[in-house]
Write a structure and sequence with these properties.
Radius of gyration: 17 Å
CATH architecture: 3-Layer(aba) Sandwich
Shape: globular
Number of strands: 9
Bound molecules: NADP nicotinamide-adenine-dinucleotide phosphate
Largest sheet: 7 strands, parallel
Number of helices: 6
Length: 228
């Protein structure tokens, strides 16, 4: 059975990706900080493996990677999805806003990937998907440190792609615009202005399913009516 691990997947985009791969017969493993929502996901998807892990904590991420290596061996698919959006402006925000987003959105992917890569490199196969953002390529006034973290995540993804070519590992970056998730709670706009999270789930599965001879490198996905 093929194995996928998705970080930050007890709700939102990560959960949508988990659902599609679960339906396709994968062993799906996910993490989040909150045990309650992980349990809800496990109740919905028989056989789902869940891990409580704060992905902003380097030591916890390294311990998680060791657990994944022991339990699954080389992952077939790794999705670096865990992330937090704290709107703000660089010149106004507290230092913690910067530090939290860099550790949650960037360090998480860096350390988890480095932890599981050696086994994937040994098999000379696998797919790594980094959930970036439109904010990885576009600056906007309320982007603040979120944009810094997502620009950097795209840089990580592009560099890793080049490094992994000789190991047969595909590295994809998905750059979504506004996706209807809890991240947008309190924003008074109709659902029609958002990408459904299910579409990102389907997209990741379809890109994974392409021949190993093909990689969709950095994919921009927008709401049909454009950015919010
Ligand atoms: N929604 C959008 O419009 C949009 C657009 C572009 C990119 N993205 C990116 O897509 C990813 C998912 O976003 P989303 O909108 O689906 O978010 P979401 O609905 O807020 O869900 C975030 C998930 O990540 C987990 N999480 C948050 N912080 C974590 C941490 N420190 N350690 C482990 N798990 C953590 C959450 O569970 P716990 O809180 O229990 O930990 C939850 O399961 C993020 O990287 C985001 O930047 C989102």
């Amino acid at each position: 059975m093929k194995t996928i691990f998705i970080s930050g997947a007890s709700q939102g985009i990560g959960l949508a990706i988990a659902r599609v791969f679960h339906a396709a017969g994968f062993q799906v493993a996910i993490c989040a900080r909150g045990a309650e929502k992980l349990a809800e996901a496990a109740a919905e998807m028989p056989g789902l493996h869940t891990y409580v892990c704060d992905m902003s904590d380097k030591a916890a991420v390294k311990a998680l990677a060791a657990q994944l290596n022991d339990r699954y061996g080389a992952l077939d698919v790794l999705v670096n999805n865990a992330g937090v959006f704290l709107p703000g402006k660089i010149h106004e925000e507290d230092d913690e806003v910067f530090e939290t987003q860099i550790s949650t959105n960037l360090h998480s992917a860096y350390y988890l990937t480095k932890g599981v890569l050696p086994l994937m490199q040994a098999t000379k196969s696998g797919t790594i998907v980094n959930i970036c953002s439109i904010a990885s390529i576009m600056a906007y006034a309320a982007g603040g440190s979120y944009a810094i973290s997502k620009f950097a995540l795209l840089g990580f993804s592009k560099s890793l792609r080049e490094e992994m070519k000789e190991f047969g590992i595909r590295v994809l970056s998905i750059l979504p615009g506004a996706v209807k998730t809890a991240s947008w709670d309190g924003v008074d706009l109709p659902d029609e202005r958002f990408i459904p999270a299910e579409d990102i789930g389907k997209l990741v599965y379809d890109l994974y399913s392409l021949s190993g001879r093909t990689v969709v490198e950095d994919l921009v996905v927008r709401p049909f009516m454009g950015d919010i």
